[in-house]
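protien #1 (seq + structre)
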Amino acid sequence: MTPLRAKMIKAMQVRGFSVRTHESYLAAVTDLARYVHRSPDKIGIEDIRGYFEYLATERSLSGASCRLFLNGIRFLYRQVLDWPGFDVDIPIPYCPKTRSTRI
């Protein structure tokens, strides 16, 4: 386990995140690192924008999935790496709300 991953896990434990949130956030950060072939602490804003374009277009992820990935990555940069200026303007796919058809 890398020191950065251990630090992220510790930060989530301190905040009382659920096990499922741990898994989701770690998966998002791991996927980002694999996409850009670099450690997350060496990734820039343009890399992150490109990653989200890839998620929306090539992987066709829903808006909800993209937001989950964004929240995990945002947590890493704001809370773990203490990058307070991290605020990436990412276009997230729109998820129309479905209405119940019950009568």
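ok now protien #2
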Amino acid sequence: ALAGAAAGVVLSVWGLELLKQVGARTVPRLAEVNVDLLVLVVTAVVAVGTGILFGLIPALATAKPELTEVLKEGGRSSTVGAHRNQVRNWLVIAEIASALVLLVGAGLLLKSYVWVQNVDPGFDRRHVLTVEVNLPDTKYPQRENADYREGEAMINFWNEALRRVQQLPGVEAAGFATILPLSGSNSDSSFSIEGRVVGKNEPGPDEEIRIVTPDYFRVLKTPLLSGRLFVETDNTHAPGVVIINEALAKKYWPNEEALGKRITFSNPRKPDPKWLTIVGIVRSVRHRGLDLDPAPEYYLPLAQRAESSMILTVRSAQDPGTLTSAIRREIQSIDPDQPIANVRTLETVTADSIAPRRMSMVLLGAFAGVALLLASVGIYGVISYLVVQRTHEIGVRMALGAQRSDVLRLIVGHAAKLVGIGTAIGLVLAFLSTRLLSVLLYNVGAFDLTTFLFVTIALAAVALLASYIPALRAARADPVAALGHDV
């Protein structure tokens, strides 16, 4: 028991490091988790207690054999009754059933994870570096009203930063945005649509909002469906403009052209509200998650709505990570005190967005792997013990003309019976339990037939293979030696 506990501690240390790599960005304070003295003490106590408990029960049973049981079994090799074999069999059946439930769950999560990975996010995540820049309000003040948010020093900084970054070797396009797709952040704002009256107690339109620079759509390669993108002249001295995505256009103008329509953040009932004209419609992007449908969104030009916290996005023809030092240098050449933060590629952002799914899949897969190993070892042990118990019987059968194939069929048939019962119970339990995984699945049903069939066949194959080894050893036994065998 202690040796097994020691091996378990070693595996847990390795597994914990793997877990930290998989879930470092998604599990709070995971880096602080370590295998300490308390863990070792608890492990030792559990190991010793388990060893004593499961060693004491059969020892007590063997120490007090029932006389009738002994006489009934005669000289057949053991005083262990048939009911004790049944206990072993049911333990193996339980292991097989548990392994099947865990394997089905892991299979469903794996299939769902593959589906999510292959979802089109609506943008090209390759070769894009993202850098967070936060300007202090004390150095870069801004003035806000209902229609515009002005900040001349702030806008000048963003424009100069873009100009310098765009001149770096290998840079294809650069742009700023308030929120990255799939970053876990969000911002929404209410607005009014020209010509549409909303009741006094009725909520008006409220959708997700992004503040961007003109080349942001080029960086992400977000297709323009109609109209135009922002241009440099879309500033506070020009009429207000807005770009919407396809989802917002379909929601509010399902049967008419959205281009040219106007919205406002002001109260439309007041005189001379500041209207923003829809000048472009872009393809919808999955901002909230790869497993969620694109939400209605609208984009405003940074020059008309200044923001102090922006994310620089840079598309590069080379490895985007090599641009980090150059970007930092250019930013600090404008303002030596201005740091950059949270530097990562857009591919990393995307991978982090599905990290919880990956964590669930890895954990359940690990448990399923352990369960499969235990089931294989269990059926191997039971069949090996069965072979030892029935060695004399096997010798008699072979002496009477039984072939090796008959012996194989006898032993493997017993294993197949255990596997069949365990699989049947496991399938019932899996059907009942996989509904709990429904919230974690994407494009995969909780009763996915392909997964159930594959796991059932794979588990049965592994279990029968584990039983084939002792069965083959029994089939190759010398009949003369087997006849003289006694346990």
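Residues 136-337 form one domain.
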